[in-house]
Amino acid sequence: GWVAAGLLAGAGGVDSRQAFPPAARDLINAWAFEAEKLIHGTPSGIDNCISVYGGARQFAAGKSEPLAEVPCIRILLVNTRVPRSTKALVARVREHHTLVPAVVNPVRDPVDSPRREASLCYADLFAIQGKVSTKSAADVYAKLGYLIDVNQALLNAMGVGHPALDSVCRLAAA
């Protein structure tokens, strides 16, 4: 995102002497997305949106929206040191889909369900932290853990998971 911002500022497309207004951020995001296409082929848009807009965001059907209620949660970020190519992973799913669509579709179609359910969990945790919910935080975290496991299983079923990610999930659950 910031490379696109620098290029646009150098070309006079945006004013870099002040905080970027929404229209400039949208332009920077669009350019950053085009750069992602060169590298990844069919990018999700997550990387450029987070780097340009920041915060916690929800992605669905190629659109990004900020999460309105973000709980304070601890997140473990792990570098598995496994090089991956988004372009190759997307091509693999496409190839499997072309070969056996009746097998791939039932696995690919529910991939968005864990994301939707996790969004509800974040709203629940936000309400718990604000003391406006009687739900149990432990129960919500257990549900989030289950959703991570389901998401990982779906990725593995589509052939885009990796044993290193499975190990991270097992260790995090322990």
Top keywords for this entry?
single chain; 174 residues; mainly alpha
Q: What do these coordinates show?
A:
There is one protein chain. The chain has 174 residues and is mainly alpha-helical. Helices cover 62% and strands 5% of the residues. A two-stranded antiparallel sheet has the order 1-2. Helix 1 packs across helix 2 and helix 4 crosses helix 5. The longest helix has 21 residues. The protein starts with a helix and ends with a helix. 10% of the residues are buried.
Provide a short characterization of the protein structure.
The chain has 174 residues and is mainly alpha-helical.
Across the major sheet, the strand order is 1-2
Order of helices and strands: HHHEEHHHHH
Helical fraction: 55-70%
Radius of gyration: 19 Å
Number of strands: 2
What is the residue-averaged pLDDT? 84
The unreliable regions are none
Let me know the largest β-sheet. 2 strands, antiparallel
What count of helical segments does DSSP give? 8
Task: Name the structural class.
Answer: mainly alpha
Q: For the record, give the distance between the C-alpha atoms at the N and C termini, rounded to a whole number.
A: 36 Å
The portion of residues forming beta strands comes to: under 5%
Shape: globular
